[in-house]
Structure formats: C-alpha cells, structure tokens
Design a protein that fits this description.
By secondary structure, the chain is an alpha+beta fold. The chain has 13 helices and 16 strands. The protein is elongated, with a radius of gyration of 32 Å.
C-alpha cells in the first residue's frame, strides 16, 4: 500500500484446491488503486507446488548430510589455496574453543596460514610442520600429509593425528582433519591411518551411492560428467567409466537438445528448475524418457542430478490415453442413447450424440438435471 505501482513479491502461500488438496502459489502484488481503469491491487500468481515439494526434499537431504558431518568426532576443516577456512564441523569448533585463547581465529572465514605463522613466531613447531604439510599437498609433492602430535593438558597427555588431503576435483582446496588417537596410542602404540578411515567411509558412501536404482551424477560447468553412479549401466548401458569426462548433451535425444540446453542454462544462471523431463539415447539406440531432479552448486560449480527412468510411467500414460480414446470412440458411436450423471445433484458428466439428439439439447455437460431438463422434473418423468 505504501508503494503504488511498484511490484512487490509475496511469500509462497498455500491455497485449498477444488480437488481437495493444498497447492503452493507465489505471486507479485502491485498496488494499482490509483489507476482509474483498474482501481485495485493486481495479484499475478502461479502454482509452485512441485517446486516446493522438490525444495523440501532438497532441504531434508542437506540436513541429512550436515547431520552426518556434525556427528563425526574428527575435527575437520576445509581451506583453499590462500589459506582461508571455508567450513568447519562442530567438533573442530568445540576443540578450538577448548584449546585456543581466541577460538574465532580458526573459525570459518579466518586465515589458517596467518594462525600458523603467528604460532610459529611463538616457537610452535607443530604449526610450522602443519603449514609445510598443507603446502606440500597443494604443490602435489605428496598425496596426503600425515603427522601424529601430542597435546599436553593439566590432567593428561593426549595424542592427535593430523591429516591433510586434497578436496574436490580441481585440487584448489584441502581437508584438514584432526583425530584424537590417545586411546589407540595407549592400547596399541600405533596410529591407524585417518586416510584409511576416510577411504573406508568413502567406500561405504560409494556403496550407498551405487545401490540407488536411479542414476546419481554430477556435471561440471562445461557439461561434462564428473561422477556417475553404477545405475547408468542398467539405465543407459553405459558404465560410469565410459561417461566420466564425456559431454552430458551427447546422450540427449536430438529432439530434446534445445529444451535441455535452455534448462541447463537457466539452472547455471541461478534460475530454479528442480525437476524437468527429457529423453536420453540408450547405448542400443532406443530412446529412454528421463525425469530429472537438479541442483546447481555455485561454489563447487557442479550440477547435482538424479535421473529416474519413467518408461513405465509413460507406457501407462499412453495405455490410459488409448483406453480413454477407445472408450470415447465407443461411447460416441454407440447405437443407444447414453448419458452419465454424477453426484447427489445429478450433474451431467457425459452424453453421447444420440442422447443429445434425442432430447434436442446440446448444453448439458456440467449442469444438473433440474437445471438442464426442468420439464422432466415438472412432469415427474425423471
């Protein structure tokens, strides 16, 4: 009301649909009360139910992933080549608060290199080794840097294992992982490699990843497959090894190439297109209809996709359509007078040509018997 003529985006709202279900809508409201030809508030809205459902599924998935990271006991941080800490898990935050005078110095957004250099100036040998290990991983001098170190406390001496490993496909980030290995040192006098644990975790995740009947994949900004689950073998007869590094568009059916390219451009530009359909070409040459759920990660520059084979769904839709056409053909050509009524009010739902000809009326559909044929009610024929 305070901004006449200025479009204002409204929040998504649920409305009760005639088919007895809640539908999500979002709209743009414009105060045009001052326009004498309109004299009202214009509400342009659209149905975004499917998008809201997809967003909810995505939120649940992200919460699940964050929950897993938060539950890990290892102290984990991700930093980039400039030393900036991109993210840390809860265990890292708790450890930093308990062992640092200024815990915010090793929180997300701070520079880990500066923290190490300041500690080195105070004679901290561990900081120097850590910094050297991180740079050796970035320079690809070693694949993984590993260091066991003691941490003294008033009550006991604890041991930790430090690991620095590459993170991501572009080698522009590393994962720093601290794990308390005190009990292992005491019991076994040796350290179980965190890299092995990470490999085990990776293997477990890969088992889950590859157990999906739907194809789960990531595609980079150049349109190339980066990761592909083994379901691709069943769905398209291409193994993950055959697809990784190849162009996503190479598999798209040529008639769907334009609409698929436009959808991909929208997604990369930030427009939400969580679900869309297209067709892929199977290795054998047959066409497979696919339903995609999509999420673009701007930071990673990766498109996360899940592909579901909807061949059976399309077949059933076609069968239903064929049966409906056959029914309508039989219904319209039937040699008998046929009408169909619905509900307690007896609303005309269908009427074949002979019925319309028999009663001499055409505008029956959607009307009650009493409204369409009052003479039948009056003469008690009905």
């Amino acid at each position: 009301m305070d901004n006449p003529g200025v479009p204002v985006k409204g929040d998504a709202t649920r409305i009760w649909h005639k088919q007895k279900s809640w539908r999500w809508i979002e709209g743009i409201l414009t105060n045009m009360l001052d326009d004498p030809s309109i004299n009202g508030i214009v509400d342009n809205f659209r149905d975004v139910t499917e998008r809201k459902h997809a967003e909810q599924l995505l939120i649940e998935s992200e919460q699940f992933n964050k929950g897993i990271l938060a539950s890990l006991r290892s102290h984990i941080a991700v930093i980039n080549k400039s030393g900036t800490i991109i993210s840390v898990n809860k265990a890292w935050e708790d450890f930093a608060k308990a062992n640092k005078d200024e815990p915010d110095r090793v929180s997300t957004g701070s520079n880990y290199y500066e923290v190490c250099e300041k500690s080195m100036a105070n004679g901290d040998d561990l900081a120097g080794k850590t910094l050297a290990g991180i740079k050796s991983v970035f320079n690809k001098e070693v694949k993984t840097f590993h260091l066991d170190y003691p941490c003294h406390s008033p009550s006991e001496q604890r041991w930790f294992a430090l690991y620095v490993s590459p993170f991501g496909e572009d080698d522009t980030k590393v994962v720093i992982s601290h794990q308390n290995i005190t009990e292992r040192i005491k019991a076994e006098n040796k350290v179980i490699s965190t890299s092995a644990e990470l490999q085990t975790a990776h293997s477990e995740l890969k088992k889950i990843f590859d157990s999906s009947l739907d194809v789960i994949c990531t595609i980079n900004a150049d349109g190339e497959f980066v990761n592909v689950s083994t379901a691709s073998q069943n769905l398209w007869s291409y193994s993950p090894e055959e697809l990784v590094g190849s162009k996503f568009m190479n598999l798209v059916y040529h008639k769907d190439a334009d609409v698929t390219s436009k959808a991909a451009e929208k997604i990369v530009s930030g427009v939400q297109v969580p679900i869309f359909e297209n067709r892929f070409v199977h290795k054998s040459g047959r066409v497979v209809p696919i339903l995609w759920s999509v999420k673009w990660d701007e930071k990673l520059r990766l498109m996360f996709r899940i592909a579901k084979d909807v061949t059976e769904k399309k077949r059933l839709e076609k069968a239903i359509e064929t049966e409906r056409d056959q029914f309508m053909d039989i219904f319209s050509k039937a040699p008998s007078v046929i009408g169909m009524l619905k509900g307690a009010d007896h609303v005309f739902e269908m009427a074949n040509p002979l019925y319309l000809k028999f009663i001499g009326k055409k505008d029956l559909i959607g009307r009650t018997v009493s409204a369409a044929l009052p003479e039948m009610i009056e003469t008690r024929v009905y």
